[in-house]
Amino acid sequence: xxxxxxxxxxxxxxxxxxxxxxxxxxxxxxxxxxxxxxxxxxxxxxxxxxxxxxxxxxxxxxxxxxxxxxxxxxxxxxxxxxxxxxxxxxxxxxxxxxxxxxxxxxxxxxxxxxxxxxxxxxxxxxxxxxxxxxxxxxxxxxxxxxxxxxxxxxxxxxxxxxxxxxxxxxxxxxxxxxxxxxxxxxxxxxxxxxxxxxxxxxxxxxxxxxxxxxxxxxxxxxxxxxxxxxxxxxxxxxxxxxxxxxxxxxxxxxxxxxxxxxxxxxxxxxxxxxxxxxxxxxxxxxxxxxxxxxxxxxxxxxxxxxxxxxxxxxxxx
Length: 317
Fold this sequence. Notes:
- The protein folds into 3 domains: 53-97, Membrane-bound Lytic Murein Transglycosylase D, Chain A; 114-193, SH3 type barrels (Roll), CATH 2.30.30.40; 203-315, endopeptidase domain like (from Nostoc punctiforme) (endopeptidase fold (from Nostoc punctiforme), Alpha-Beta Complex), CATH 3.90.1720.10.
- The chain has 317 residues and is α+β, with helices and mostly antiparallel strands.
- It contains 8 helices and 17 strands.
């Protein structure tokens, strides 16, 4: 080549340009990947936004009613509070409501009132209140037209409801209407039906018949005598100590001739002083957790075993 000049061939220049383009693309891809990594780290470090609301337990509350009121399930509520689904709730204790903050809230104009959501009334005469959500379940009572109830849950064409006196059951939904019934009907149902002690509480206690006896037990898996009474009364917002002797100090004393269903009855069975407790169910009988192999059963106050060991009764409100 003349004068020592050098000339670069076209092919080698194209290869150099190609390498530069590939290198530039790799750098840009690496920058994009690094940017995504940084964004992911920032997002993961942010605090969770789905905070849990709390609710203070009131008289008559159960996991079922609390779950229905806050639009969640009993399973989620029990898991969030480290409880069993049949746990006894303590009055005044706060429970966490899972996912409350993440629920989509309707606009103020479209949001229905609490009265419209949870209060219904019988829209026909002689509406049957049953123990289960089907027509073959045991009939508890007949409701007159206008009877006001609290809606607890929906089960297909049936609704679980609670009357003002605490009685719970299932009613056929097409026979119910939204809102409160007439005041006259509400007053009639409140005065004509038995109160909590003589109806719902006794039904709940008798439903536990057959449960096994277990020393120290306070659940359907097994009861001792005071654990059984504590479990039943807790379902109606009444907290009792886990001791028959301590329970004998609650409420007011009742003479044997004035016993009413729902009263606690006490006995001295194994030592001096109170050592056994049960719930009076009427007709001279009481339901209790029996330690002699029977579990939860019904016995007579006049039996040869319990009559001489009877030590009194208390009415707990």
